[in-house]
Amino acid sequence: MDRDRALPSLSRRQLLALLAGGLGLGASLLAAKASTQASGAITNQAPLPSATSLVAQAPASQSPTKLRWLATADSGSGDSKQQAVADQMAAVQRRQPVDLVIMAGDNIYNDGDLSKVDGAFTRPYSALLKAGVPFHAVLGNHDIRTANGDPQVAYRPFGMAGRWYSLRRGPVEFFMLDTNVNANWSRQLPWLRTSLAASKAPWKVVVGHHPIYSAGLYGNDPEAQGRLSPLFKKYGVQLYINGHEHDYERTKAIDGTTYLTLGIGGAHLRPILANGNTAVCASVHGFVELEASPTSLSINAWDSHGKPLDQATLALKS
User: Fold this and answer.
1) What is the fold, at CATH topology level, of the domain defined by 27-57+64-311?
2) For residue range 155-172, what is the model confidence (pLDDT) as tens digits?
């Protein structure tokens, strides 16, 4: 049988599963020009009383007009792969200090058990923690396997003010979501809507564990698209950060939002095949360094050896 003739009959997910199972895709990297983003209309409405919102004063040393942060996901493997990524994150911090680290879920493999936090968090990120860099996490599907993730929510170094919460730092407001199968969307979605509407931040960044648009194994999620993408478009969310797919992907702007998949923090990798929404993709361990000013947001992705994977700059549109 001609293999090249047989492959098109496979679905994208079947092909990716086959590649992950033995063929291997390698660390492919597809580059494209960065897309600019739009900011949305803002209305003033108080959050629902039942919602959990983090209100914290920015450190005195933090600039009100500039924010630097690192982002990772699917990081809590506690092995040499996670350590290699963490070492490169610390190297970025030494080169130019960052204000915080965002973790987009699956913080502790395989079952979210907080007794494993030393190997999955404290030791790998010891240099960042000693430098006083705060972490802020969301829950992934592995994290809720132990006590529905409640011990992680209560663990202060993870910086969670609830299963969902918001965080304003400089020119950026983060909206941290619970995207798990048991998420309470009847409360969370109205909170997100009112919080986005009330935000006056130049940059709105939503963080959730699960992808909305993806060229990875799980692909696009129509249910998440219907639930969240219209809000992103209406209220001008410029960036969505997620994990779950064990690959790196930056999409082209979709209705003004760039979707950034970062499931490369330490978990085993899976192959990825670029689709029509993909700007850049790679199957390689790493992390992302981001910097926001009042007019632009830069994205620099690095692999676990300190080599650049991707660079893009989003421009704020009025």
Assistant:
1) Purple Acid Phosphatase; chain A, domain 2 (3.60.21)
2) 999 999 999 999 999 999
